[in-house]
Structures are given as C-alpha cells and as structure tokens.
Design goal:
The protein contains 15 helices and four strands. The protein is mainly alpha-helical. The strands form two sheets. It has a two-stranded antiparallel ribbon with strand order 1-4.
Length: about 270
Amino acid sequence: MDTNAPEPATEEGFKDDPREAQKDHDDPLAGATTFEDLMKVVGPYGRWTIMVVFVCAVGNVPLASSNMTYQLVGATPDHWCSVAPLLGANWTQQQIISFAIPTRSDTGRLDGCVMRDYNYEAAAALGYEGAMANASLLLASNDTLACPSRSFNHSQHPDTYVTEWDLVCDRRHLYASSQAAVSVGGFFASLLCSHILDITGRRSALVVACLINIVMSFVLALAPNITVYIILKAIIEILQLITYIAGFVLGELTEKTIIICSLSNSLLKVSN
C-alpha cells in the first residue's frame, strides 16, 4: 500500500486547509447560516442597528401626545340648552341660563343636558324681567325637558370636536369611543400584523403603510362626523403598528424608506 497517497478530502480537511481558513477569515459571512449569526457579524451597535432604532424612535417621540390627543381636540367646555324662542328675543346667554337652566343638586353646577319646562314663547314675549317676575305662571310642569340643541362656552375652548359634533349628555359615549378606537385598532393590528408582513414582505408593508398614514393623517382632520372619525382612528392605529413593527424587523432599509418611515410616523402622531 502506498503510504504517501493523499488522504481523501473531507469537511474537516477543508477546515484544516490554511487557504480555506484564510477565506473564512476574510469573509465573515461565510459561516453565517442563521439570522443570529448575521446579527453577530453586523454587531449589536453597528451603524445599521443604530439607524433602525433611531428612525423608529424618532417617529414615536410624539406617541404620548398622540394617545392623549382626545384630551386636547376633545376638550369639553361648559354647555347648556339652547332655547330658540329666547335667543330669537335677543336674550343674553346669562339670562337664558338663569331663567331656563336648572342646577344639579349634587354638584351645584349647571345641568347642561336639560332645561325647565316653561312656556318659552310667552316668556320671550314678556321679556327677561317680566318672565322672571311671572315664572310660576309660565311653568308648564315641574319636569325638565331634554335639550333640543346646545350652546357652549367658547371662551373656554373655541372649537373642539365635542362642540362640533355635540358629544355631551346622551352622546357622551361617542367621545369615549373615539379613544377606544385606538385600542381596538391596536388589538386587530396585533392579530394581523405578522401575517401581513409575512405575505407582503417587510419593506413593501412599511412603505405602503407609511404612505397611507400620511394621507390618513390629513383626512382625519377633515372627518365630517364622529363615526368617520372613529373608523379612521382605528385604521390609522393599525397602519401605525404595522409601520412600527416592520421598521424594527426589516432586514434592509434604504435611505428613501428611512425618510418615509420617520416622516409618516411624525406626521401621523402630530396630526392626530
């Protein structure tokens, strides 16, 4: 037997080959077979990692103000019943309040949801002084009436969606629903987001969600009623979560994608 014959090549033999070892040393990706291996090559504090975290963080800086926006655009000023006959007779708001609006026994504040049951046409004909002097004669019953419409104290808050859509009294639940829509949108987004990203791809989902977010942010400000507003808030929350998650798990971020991601997130949260 020829003892000088070369040994057959094996995987171990290649690893022991100095030339192969040099190639592996020059190309750190050669031995990367899993995502964890790639992250070790990239490093935990590499430029790519820092860029992804920074962009997603910048887009979510206004997150607190976005989640609490209903406290600002939905501020509720004092309100009371709007009595058309008295307004037509040029009564001041203070005169209408003192004559027609009862106070709550538990708080001592105006009850902005009801008014006294007076003959307001007759009161308007008598004028404020005459109506106050003959209030007992003008009283139709001891019951109170629901407000047909309302007046708001615009000196407290000039214009909010509460005053625009009358979200007080029996419509107050719609005010809370505008914020609940955010939680509902987040719930459905948590169920659908991973499936959407797997089907469409991270980058495609990120770019599309960002672009739709920009449009939706401005459409939300033009919502014609509270129903449309609630629906848009839920949709925007779904898109926002897709953008947020896709930005962190995306394997490649181009410069254009980074700009769109950051801009859309900021616009979305500020406009909300």
